Amino acid sequence: MKILHIVSSLNVGGAERFVIDLAYEQRKQHHVEILSMGQQDEPLAQELTKEGINIHYASSIIDLKKIFTGFDVVHIHSSHCLLRVLIASLFNNKTNIVYTRHNERVHRRLKWQLTYMLARIKLHKMVFVAEKAMQNYLNFYPQFRQKSQVILNGVLPITGDKTPSEKLRLGHIGRFVALKSQHCLIEAVALLPDELKAKISLNFFGTGELLVHNQNLAKKLIPEVEVTFSGFVCDRNEIFQQIDILVVTSETEGLSLAILEALASKTPIIASDVGGNPELVHHEKNGFLYPYHDIAALKTAIALLATDKKRYQVFSENCLHYYQQQFSMQRCANEYLESYQ
Question: Tens digits of per-residue pLDDT, 23-55?
Fold first, then answer.
């Protein structure tokens, strides 16, 4: 089977990282290529080139139509690509079009309603990465019920032991954009008692427009806490060797790749109770959930996990168990293959 994955860019992000992992797993048995509608010098492109996966670049509908020829499946992973792909596929009835929605937001504007009218005709399957996301969508677009299904994201295994550290290391992974709300973590740590602040450190992984704002906020609110802004780090093994607890502060999430990677690396999680997070973080079993933007609740969760070593160990073991049972990339790739067929 020849499979073409389409992404809006090859910048570092959860959906992009997932697509690459899925491609690595699928190419064990199938021919897989990736099409990006971004720029040719983006960070993840080098990784794909090294791994021998062919990358296409296209923005026009004419270019898309040419590239689609010969592929059995075109798999879209971004709403920004959807309309162009649908139009390009109008006179191609041999290729199955699959669209995965990686977030929980429902597009309601007229532009999107028209787009989804075309999607209803051309899409073979619409895949959601969380049950809640699918139900929210179908409440507004019930006509897609027969084409819709949930496939939980998977992640490749994460190897390597964590580097011992005197301090408990809180980590945040994600672009510095408004919906990721990294400032919530900084503000929550600022509320901790001084004796606990001395026992923890923070490490932020990612770049983006709000990076400098958060750097200045950390200097202002928690100058006594060790805070590192590591920028873009591609190697997830390297990232999770530097994290003891993953903190997710997002306003919205689909099925968070960072949380999946935390499960695979036995890293307990504290996450905002949004989107697909409750499907990954089982409250008081492998981590804590807290109401989005509730700084006091986030502070309490950090304090509980930072001061209870026995609870931390139980959470860590449960993370690995959940990963092995539900979130391997092999399981995910097999479910997508069934969807394609």
Answer: 999 999 999 999 999 888 888 888 898 889 999
**Pairing state between β 245-248 and 269-272:** parallel
Q: What are phi and psi of 339, to 5 degrees?
A: -65, -40
CB 30 within 8 A of CB 61: no
pLDDT in tens, 98-115: 999 988 889 999 999 999
Q: d(Cα 29, Cα 65) in Å, to the nearest integer?
A: 25
Catalogue the long-range contacts made by 22-26 (C-beta closer than 8 Å, 24 or more residues apart). 22/154, 22/329, 22/332, 22/333, 22/336, 23/48, 23/53, 24/51, 24/156, 24/329, 25/154, 25/156, 25/329, 25/330, 25/332, 25/333, 26/333, 26/336, 26/337
The sign one gets for the Cα dihedral 195, 200, 206, 212 is positive
Distances 272 to 154, 265, 269 between C-alpha atoms, Å: 20, 20, 10
- Sheet with 125-128, side-by-side order of all strands: 55-57, 31-36, 2-7, 73-76, 96-101, 125-128, 148-150
pLDDT given for residue 40 in this prediction: 87
**Count of residues making up the chain:** 341
Of 112, 100, 113, 312, nearest to 200 by C-alpha is 312
Strand partners for 34: 5, 55
| pLDDT score at 290 | 98
Specify the 3-state DSSP secondary structure of 101.
Answer: strand
Kindly list the structural domains of the chain, giving each domain's residue range(s) and its CATH number in brackets, ordered by start. 2-150 (3.40.50.2000), 168-326 (3.40.50.2000)
Provide the mean pLDDT of the chain.
92
- For residue 76, with 0-12 CB atoms within 10 Å meaning exposed, 13-18 middle and 19 or more buried, which class applies? buried
Q: 246 - beta bridge partners?
A: 171, 269
**C-alpha R_g of the chain:** 21
What is the tens place of the pLDDT at every residue in 72-93? 999 999 999 999 999 999 888 8
